[in-house]
Amino acid sequence: TSESLRFLVDLLTAEGYRVRPTQDPKMALESATYNPPDLILTDVRMPGMDGFELCRRLKSDNRTSGLPVIFVSALQNLKDKMLGFEAGGVDFISKPIQREEVLARVSSQLELFRIRKHLEAQTRELSEANRKLTELDRLKSMFIASMSHELRTPLNSIIGFTGITLEGLSGEINDEQKDNLDRANRAGLHLLELITDIIDISKIEAGRIDVFVNEFNLFDLVKDAESVIRPELDKKGLSLTIDLAPGIDLVTDKKRLLQCLINFFSNAVKFSEEGEIVIQAAHENGDVEILVSDQGIGIKESDIPRLFTAFERLENHLRVKAGGTGLGLYLTKKIATELLQGSVFVHSRFGRGSTFGVRIPRTINGPLAASAIQEEGI
Known about the structure:
Elements: H1 2-14, H2 25-34, E1 40-43, H3 51-59, E2 69-73, H4 78-87, E3 91-94, H5 99-150, H6 152-166, H7 175-206, E4 214-217, H8 218-236, E5 239-244, E6 249-252, H9 254-270, E7 276-284, E8 287-293, H10 319-322, H11 328-339, E9 343-349, E10 353-361, H12 367-370
Helix pairs in contact: 2-3, 5-7, 6-7, 7-11, 8-9, 9-11
């Protein structure tokens, strides 16, 4: 009624609200469509279009579908109120209109509306941020693909030609030239190792690395790892003992597990000045646990939490001589946990040696076992 409308306009205006009143539901619909308010109060009984129909039309239009609608009505029947909620209304104000009720319901619905608009804005911001992250991931993959070729190719040439010259295949060289070339060759090998580790880590983190499942015997894999580190073992006079439980057959990624073992072996050799390196393996409730132990310099207890983080190289008297990228253990953890579905661990006593271990399922479960994950363009 016009009396109710005047009462609401005067009340809300006095409280500081801006009000656009109308007694024509079609005009109200048009006004809300082209200049949406924050809240609509509508009587239920109106000429030409009742409040429920007005609400339904507002909710069917994307421009006004989110507007909260409060019905002002003398209806007390539960069925009528259910019709209002089914039409999309959020609340009812009963007639005769009470000042306190109006202000309480209007204030609460406006606050809820503000909260919802804020959440919608945050959702849009998150959606945009996610789009940007997706684009960054695409650019990262392109960068990895480019670096894989653009950096490795010239480095392989540097390493190859310096190696040929060092072997005397291009003619005799004096001691000073040999020393310079040897330094260049070792620097090239170190840089290639660093680039390879960074590219592998980037691929794993981007979910774009090959995982090929093979069936193989662990003893054969250990012998492959031994052949890689044998020159360093012999150079330092270290012995190697292989103590594996018989018949350990695995169905997992042979290449990636070999990478983990070589990293463990390499660490054991680097930080041992004498003694024995032991590799052990046993069945553990469907898993296989592989341990690489040394009698080297060991690790301080306070340093152990830093071991599997990127670019960590602990301070010790072998640090410079041992070399390394500071990425080997970090990469090993990434491979073991994210590709081989296992875990890594370490036990050490400072000055007495260390044991590094990896525990993985004998058979990889899930989608990795079904097929290889193919890299796209890498």
